Amino acid sequence: MKPEPLRSFSSPTSLLIRKPPISPYFLFTFLAFIIFAIFLYGEDLRCIIGQQHHLHLDHINPNPPPPSAATEKHQIHDTKLPFSVGEEEKGCDVFSGRWVWDPVNHPLYKESECPYIQPQLTCQEHGRPDRDYQFWRWQPHACSLPSFNASLMLETLRNKRMMFVGDSLNRGQYVSMVCLLHSLIPDNAKSMETFGSLTVFTAKDYNATIEFYWAPFLLESNADDAVIHRISDRIVRKGSMNKHGKHWKGVDIIVFNTYLWWMTDADFKILHGSFNDEVKQIVEVSTEDAYRMMMKSMMRWVKENMDPNKTRVFFTGMSPTHQMSIEWGGNPNGRCYNHTKMIADPNYWGSDCKKNIMKIIGDVFRESKFPITFLNITQLSLYRKDAHTSIYKKQWNPLTPEQIANPSSYADCIHWCLPGLQDTWNELLFSELFFP
């Protein structure tokens, strides 16, 4: 018998009559799938409805800010980054957003509970009277950052190496990462050791290490000594990435940074040949040319020595130095000293962050075929003049009477208190690692 041909129905009623009933089993299965999808892709769903979601978050404030921060609960208003690397991808740009007061979820750990913070960064221990700088959360415009999950991070690092390479600012981010994780590890199952330029935190039960390697220029330089490196006449050896790079091979996650040490008031000195040569051939080039040479050397080394299927490569952008308070309307002779509020102007960009250097980074990354993730922390950090260590740190040399009379003169406006801003850098690193 031939099957009956399909025919149209004369009314909606006939459609309902002929439609097979939906079984309770199907409904139960469908609902179970929806619940599973929400659990598995919750962060992605929040990203999709991020605009509506964060509008509600902004008004949830169970603990209003203290009077000192009340006028600064000025969440940095909607704005795009004034200068970004490459073209912005569709979707959520986690580096474009505003700071939101969040004393419920921040800080992510206590200064007194992390023994690995260097005395240069322990601001509370060294007398800082306020803690407002610890309570701010970065809120992207188009979505919400996933909460930092220390258990997931540690499990991901099982049998792996994670390494931060660069200067003292990258060391601060490294220590922040250790502080975010160490409380989940028993005291007898963790250690931190230093071997010259290399510092290694070991989570023994995970067979995992989080490491920091001191290389302020990435290339070989006369500032490579991990202890004695305060050299004003800086010289970098051209094409010498292997000098340090041999210690980076085999890592599973690597985070580079280098910027501040390149910023001099004069042309930069590049050594052709070896530091051991009796007669040294040194050529002076512009800072821009020197920095571009380094970036190309780094990318060439990464391409030749890293497997993109095994290693995730990150590069942290410029960290601002709030040395000139006149740039944000402050005292002409002031710096970051005694600043407990962030910069409210969403378009603020200080002279300490060179846009020509940002352009070089973008140019080199666009030319490279090796996948590398850029942590564009510059703009969000530019607002945070309140988060530097200032005078609240260990002073390696006795202060002079002149310095004591003028605290602004010796305030450290380069490094950041921990806990604080650099924990946000690692929240962004976590986001890019697991939710790219």
Automatic annotation (TrEMBL):
Record has Transmembrane as a keyword: yes
Membrane-crossing segments per the record: 21-42
A Pfam family hit: PMR5N
Key words, A-Z: Membrane, Signal-anchor, Transmembrane, Transmembrane helix
Protein's UniProt name: Trichome birefringence-like N-terminal domain-containing protein
Membrane topology: Single-pass membrane protein
Lineage: Eukaryota, Viridiplantae, Streptophyta, Embryophyta, Tracheophyta
Domain Trichome birefringence-like C-terminal: 145-430
Compartments (UniProt record): Membrane
Family, per entry: Belongs to the PC-esterase family. TBL subfamily.
GO CC annotation terms, alphabetical: Golgi apparatus; membrane
GO molecular function, one term: O-acetyltransferase activity
UniProt cross-references to InterPro entries, sorted A to Z: TBL, TBL_C, TBL_N
Domain Trichome birefringence-like N-terminal: 91-144
